[in-house]
Specification:
Blueprint: H1 4-21, H2 29-42, H3 47-55, E1 60-64, E2 67-70, H4 71-87, E3 95-99, H5 104-116, E4 119-123, H6 129-139, E5 143-146, E6 160-162, E7 182-186, E8 196-197, H7 206-214, E9 222-225, H8 232-243, E10 247-249, H9 256-265, E11 270-273, H10 275-287, E12 299-302, H11 309-319, E13 323-329, E14 333-338, H12 340-345, E15 352-353, E16 358-362, E17 375-380, E18 396-397, E19 400-409, E20 415-420, E21 425-427, E22 430-432, H13 434-442, E23 447-457, E24 461-470, H14 478-486, E25 497-500
Parallel strand pairs: 1-10, 3-4, 3-5, 4-7, 5-6, 9-10, 9-11, 11-12, 12-13, 24-25
Antiparallel strand pairs: 1-2, 7-8, 13-14, 14-15, 16-17, 17-19, 18-19, 19-20, 21-22, 23-24
Helix pairs in contact: 1-7, 2-3, 3-8, 4-5, 9-10, 10-11
Length: 518
């Protein structure tokens, strides 16, 4: 466990990182006082708008498909939403479901939730009606706040309200809520019904400071957020960017050409995306002959699924040393971040442990393994997982949470993910992780996308099946795919089966839906 000296050193480092980012600035007592009042009343999420409102209320907060919204306008929109929720009977501690795509109304709803002290359940915008009804009932959602075009017949006990701007309701300033808001983020649900992860607002500077110590995010500028806001990656960066006074560019649906144009036309300094989105933006960039000027980019932050060495190298070569890859999950939050230098040295890695986090790699007897040896990964940090809302949790070891992944540290302290613990197959007595084969296929110039799974085999117990999407203009057959793997890996890791698809089934965070691969 961290000692007092270690904690003091960490807090000092966090404060330094926060000051360097411009989130807090010496000599601005009025701004600091506004932030302190907001944190006391609403918790750390209160600074989402408190800081930019105290500094520059007229600055553009969000650009979306409907146009531009200033911080003052976003504040008024959030206030009107909170009053509309109250008029429906919502009180502190109630659960409100938010079913929305990326736009200013999403962020206004998050702020409204903090002002009322509600528990905001972020619902996947891709839900079908049965899945929405099941999750909303399990989570105890009392009011549904939704985009008008998303499942229009769906509701909750207190009804349904739109995410569009609400007409102002009379009343003075909203009083401080009886309790601080919390947010329920659903797991990706790639193998079953998504689960709700319980987590309170963070305390202290550890969460912000840890991230800002590893990634040079700065106040001002413009950030294009392609990742969905209903998942942790998009939400975290939307809240942080708002507090930093950054203009956020959001689009209801991801389009790589639109994203590329947003980056170039708005001289964006940041991009937040899952790996498949980054790859498609790079594809669009190549198809346009590299004409888009992306020289203003300072941070390309990627998380949500495996980046992979081939894509990491391609992004660095195209964009420069601006790519940062975070490893974490809905349950464990954050664990490691790979800097551009890390990705140059070890492209497939997920980087070094974030300051204040703890990561252990252990064997089946729960003993730490040496560098280079694969083991199960356990993580702990300042955002402890409180269990699933429907009951149950994850395996723990000395206060650390199992990620479900296996991986190894190298001698420089960089972590590499070797695969999912439950994805490993035993074929003819040999252990095989599909992700290793996927990495080889991803590097093939003729392959646009690939996924590898294990399937039963009467002779070997299990065998690999590769699902491949061929790049336009490329000509590949099954033997070519097998040869690409056989030339790089042991023969027993070569897929016996090769299936060609037009595209892989993926969820909004870019993870392959293996249950849909047959």
């Amino acid at each position: 466990m961290p000692t007092v000296v270690t904690r003091l050193a960490d807090e000092t480092a966090y404060l330094g990182a926060v000051l360097r980012s411009g989130l807090l600035r010496p000599g601005h007592p009025r701004v600091a006082a506004a932030a302190a009042r907001a944190v006391r009343a609403e918790g750390p999420l209160g600074v989402t708008l408190a800081l930019p409102l105290a500094r520059h209320p007229g600055r553009v907060a969000v650009v979306d498909d409907a146009g531009a919204t200033t911080y003052a306008e976003l504040d008024a929109r959030a206030d009107a939403a909170a009053r509309a929720w109250q008029a429906r009977g919502v009180r502190a501690g109630d659960k409100v479901g938010l079913l929305a795509r990326n736009h200013a109304g999403f962020l206004a709803a998050v702020v409204a939730a903090t002002r009322l002290g509600v528990r905001l359940v972020l619902l996947n915008a891709e839900f079908a009606r049965p899945q929405l009804d099941e999750v909303a009932a399990r989570e105890g959602v009392r009011l549904l706040v939704a985009d008008d075009d998303l499942l229009p017949g769906a509701g909750a006990p207190l009804g349904r309200l739109t995410t569009r701007p609400q007409a102002g309701l009379p009343g003075g300033p909203l009083p401080a809520p009886a309790e601080h808001a919390s947010i329920v983020i659903l797991t990706s649900g790639t193998t079953g019904t998504p689960k709700g992860a319980r987590r309170q607002q963070p305390r202290g500077l550890a969460t912000l400071g840890g991230l800002l110590s590893a990634v040079p995010l700065r106040a001002g500028g413009t950030t294009v957020i392609c990742a969905p806001l209903f998942h942790a990656l998009g939400l975290t960066h939307a809240v942080l960017a708002s507090a930093l006074g950054t203009t956020i560019v959001l689009r209801r649906r991801f389009d790589p050409v639109v994203a590329l144009n947003d980056l170039a036309d708005r001289r964006a300094t940041g991009l937040i995306a899952v790996p498949i989105m980054l790859r498609r933006i790079l594809d669009a960039h190549d198809e346009e002959g590299g004409a888009a000027d992306l020289s203003q980019l300072r941070v390309v932050f990627v998380a949500g699924s495996q980046l992979g060495g081939a894509l990491a190298t391609r992004a660095l070569e195209t964009l420069g040393d601006v790519v940062y890859n975070l490893y974490g999950s809905t349950e464990v939050a954050y664990a490691t971040v790979a800097s551009p230098a890390d990705l140059r040295a070890a492209p497939a890695c997920v980087g070094r442990v974030v300051r204040g986090a703890r990561v252990r790699v252990v064997d089946d007897a729960d003993a730490d393994v040496p560098a280079g040896v694969t083991g199960r990964i356990f993580v702990g940090n300042a955002l402890p997982f409180e269990g699933y809302t429907g009951g149950g949790g994850k395996e723990q070891l000395d206060g650390l949470l199992a990620t479900g992944d296996v991986g190894h540290f190298d001698t420089a302290g960089r972590l590499t993910i070797d695969g999912r613990d439950d994805d490993m197959i035993v074929s003819g007595g040999e252990n095989v992780f599909p992700s290793e084969v996927e990495e080889v296929l991803a590097a093939h110039p003729g392959i646009a996308d690939a996924a590898v799974v294990g399937v039963p085999d009467d002779e070997f117990g299990a065998r690999l099946r590769a699902f491949v999407v061929v790049r336009p203009g490329a000509a590949l057959d099954a033997d070519d795919v097998r040869a690409a793997v056989r030339d790089r890996l042991a023969r027993f890791k070569t897929p016996r089966d090769v299936v060609f698809l037009d595209e892989l089934p993926r969820n909004p965070t870019g993870k392959v839906l293996t249950r849909d691969l047959v």
